[in-house]
Amino acid sequence: MRYCLLLSVILPLSFIGCTQKQEPTKPAPDLAAGKAIAEAKCSGCHGLNGGGAAPGIPHLAAQSPEYLLQSLYAYKEGIRHHAGLQDLAAHMSDTDLRNVAGYFASQPPIQNKEMQELPPSPYEKGKTAAAVCASCHGEDGNSTTPGIPTLAGQQPVYVVTATQEYLHGLRPISGMEPTLRGLRKLDLQNIALYFAVQTPVQRGAAPFGDAAAGEPLSGKCGGCHGARGVSNDAATPSLASQDPQYLLSAIKAYRDQARHHEIMNAQLAGTSDSDIENIVAFYTVQKPKAAEDRPISAKKLAEKCDRCHGAVVGRPTMTIPKIAGQDKDYLMMALRAYHDGKRGTSTMHRMTMPYTDTIIEDVASYYASQPAK
Ligand code: HEC
Ligand code: HEC
Ligand code: HEC
Ligand code: HEC
After folding, report:
1. Topology of domain 30-110, per CATH?
2. Is the model's pLDDT at 336 over the cut of 90?
3. Are the C-beta atoms of 330 and 341 separated by less than 8 Å?
4. Pocket of ligand 4 from Cβ distances under 6 Å
5. Which ligand number lies closest to the CA of residue 195?
6. What would the pLDDT profile of 178-230 be if each residue is shown by its tens digit?
7. Three-state secondary structure along 81-148?
8. Domain spanning 122-284: which superfamily?
9. What residue ranges do the domains of the chain occupy?
């Protein structure tokens, strides 16, 4: 046996035929016993065939048996929270759990029939929802009205934060009131994704100030806003080619503490009017760049996820569930739980941290529409 182990390091297993395991293996699950448990205790929700009976209930059919078993222990031990399942699992022996997991895993995969058509992407939804902003912010968010900021190419997290500042009365909302009040948070996230991809138009010189004199003054701003006003951080706005009138009033508002943001208030405290005009003149003529090159697409995102979830063999150190063809509502629920840190502090928490609800819905729809294997 030791000889076999040694050889198997050097040569592929199949080549030398060391099929026997080194460890004494657990007995194979008793599928008939597992079926009896499934029928009595699980089929009302998971179907006898392992198909979730309602939206939000996961399909168990053809799932990895190790993953099913691991989940059942997670409920039993209160690592995953679901009162009903914790109670069920608590009253089952290790053998019962292995048998029922083995039974569901052995069922043929369930296809989501109604999910073949994907809903519009967050980008498309954002484009539709952003139409009401165009009358003031311009076509595709390129403002041509002095005093109104360009939103084209702006950093998406910032656009959401800024809009919420108006809604919460932290910035005077003025003419935007009727338009913004009706927006749902999800619409707003979509709108921000849409604007992030639009190409911002390069502006000519500001009607005031001296760009050359503004350049050295912008030195201390570059660490956050990018060397020439193109920000790389989703929460920090780009300033390059922003409307000069708007920039002037925004900067003065920070300086005079009329707009509150600790960092910005500190950065601009005591700056003279003429220095501000020069800084604005500098940023007005800088070459702008959109925050995102292309719309974020679920398919592209899924390439990242498939490094683990798409692998045929999986990763030796991880038990990875199949997610293609899983119930959409369940996928959304699971991803939000990871995102919010309510389902373990796992790899998946890190994976889902950057994504808003609308991207989570998009990627859930994508996987739900994929054929189950
Ligand atoms: C009352 C309905 C209900 C019953 C009965 C039920 N489940 Fe579930 N099951 C659910 C729901 C809802 C979830 C998703 C819970 C969550 O968000 O973690 C779930 C999740 C699971 C999961 C995790 C799947 C995954 O993809 O992570 C497993 C495994 C599971 N159930 C097995 C069973 C077994 C085995 C039984 C019978 C012993 C059973 N369930 C009975 C509703 C039910
Ligand atoms: C009636 C005209 C009008 C409409 C319609 C309008 N806005 Fe505005 N918006 C403004 C004005 C004016 C400002 C500048 C206010 C200020 O100085 O704070 C502004 C500022 C903003 C800002 C701040 C940008 C920055 O760089 O800080 C955001 C974000 C914004 N609007 C989002 C929207 C969105 C999203 C919509 C559509 C759902 C919209 N606005 C519709 C007039 C409008
Ligand atoms: C430490 C990081 C940091 C530095 C340094 C910094 N900023 Fe900012 N700035 C921010 C952040 C973050 C925001 C967004 C604030 C918010 O959410 O309201 C912001 C917002 C702004 C805005 C509002 C833009 C808009 O669209 O409404 C302007 C204008 C601005 N900064 C100019 C400057 C200038 C000029 C300097 C240099 C004198 C500077 N900032 C230095 C982080 C910084
Ligand atoms: C580094 C490997 C890895 C990557 C990359 C990864 N996952 Fe996961 N995923 C896991 C592991 C491991 C689990 C099981 C964790 C647990 O037990 O909660 C999991 C669990 C899940 C679940 C729960 C499934 C169920 O049945 O409950 C979903 C949904 C999911 N991942 C979706 C995604 C999506 C979407 C992405 C891409 C944005 C992604 N994963 C990227 C390893 C990964």
Report:
1. Cytochrome Bc1 Complex; Chain D, domain 2 (1.10.760)
2. yes
3. no
4. 58, 301, 304-305, 307-309, 318, 320-321, 323, 331, 334-335, 343-344, 346-348, 351, 363
5. 2
6. 889 888 888 999 999 999 999 999 999 999 999 999 999 999 999 999 989 99
7. CCHHHHHHHHCCCHHHHHHHHHHHHCCCCCCCHHHCCCCCCHHHHHHHHHHHHHHHHCHHHCCCCCCC
8. Cytochrome c-like domain (1.10.760.10)
9. 30-110, 122-284, 297-373
